Amino acid sequence: MNTTRRGLLFVLSSPSGAGKTTITRRLLADDPSLSMSVSVTTRPPRDGEVDGRDYHFIDKRAFDDLIATHALLEYAQVFEHWYGTPLAPVEQALEDGRDMVFDIDWQGAKQVRGRLPNHIVSVFILPPSMTELHDRLRRRAKDSEKVVITRMAKAVDEVSHYDEYDYVLVNNDLEQALVEVKSILSAERLKRTRQLWLVSFVAKLLGPN
């Protein structure tokens, strides 16, 4: 039986430190059928990041060329750097019926929804409290206190966009949040509108035996 399914774009967003990157990595590790949308960015790599795996690291001129040639599905400036999603791999994944996961902010999610509204499923991840978010950012020890303060200020704006998402969950516990994200993905994969094989299958069921 042919069970061809329409691919989906699974978008995860959250303020920095609320858990979207960790959840995304766990999701990818546990589900080999998912592929990651690797963004391009003008920021330099952080310790441990690998070009082509975590991001495609490019300069601003190359980024501007991608914008000019309409090669990005979405893009935005975050702090002093630019981030964007290459369009070609996304179009190929949808054509092949594969699912992609996106670790992007609310600006990117809004652009993806505007261009591909029938394919996107969006999830916003909230921290249990702003105090806990601040503590998580400090515990990461990746940024100076000045950067942490800047990220906290931006978090207030990001959280205000929670109601633009299909699903919202609170990351009180990482394992529970991961279970909830997986449940959302499973349910969305089973939606009738994504099951391209159903029309012909039901026609056969109802046809002459």
Textual characterization of the structure:
- The chain has eight helices and nine strands.
- It is of the alpha/beta class and 209 residues long.
- Strands 2-7-1-8-9 form a five-stranded parallel sheet, with helices on both faces.
- Helix 5 packs antiparallel against helix 6.
- The longest helix has 16 residues, at 174-189.
- The two termini are 17 Å apart.
- The model has no long low-confidence stretch (mean pLDDT 90).
**Count of separate structural domains:** 1
Stated plainly, the CATH topology is called: Rossmann fold
What share of the residues lie within helices? Answer: 40-55%
Instruction: Provide the CATH superfamily.
Output: P-loop containing nucleotide triphosphate hydrolases
Succession of helices and strands: EHEEEHEEHEHEHHEHH
Average pLDDT, rounded to a whole number, is 90
Structural class: alpha/beta
The radius of gyration computed from the alpha-carbon positions, rounded to a whole number of angstroms, is: 19 Å
Indicate the low-confidence ranges by residue numbers.
none
Largest sheet: 5 strands, parallel
User: Strands across the major sheet, in which order?
Assistant: 2-7-1-8-9
Beta-strand residue percentage:
15-25%
Question: What is the CATH first-level class name?
Answer: Alpha Beta
In DSSP terms (H or I, runs of 4 or more residues), the helix count works out at: 8
What gross morphology would you assign?
Answer: globular
Number of strands: 9
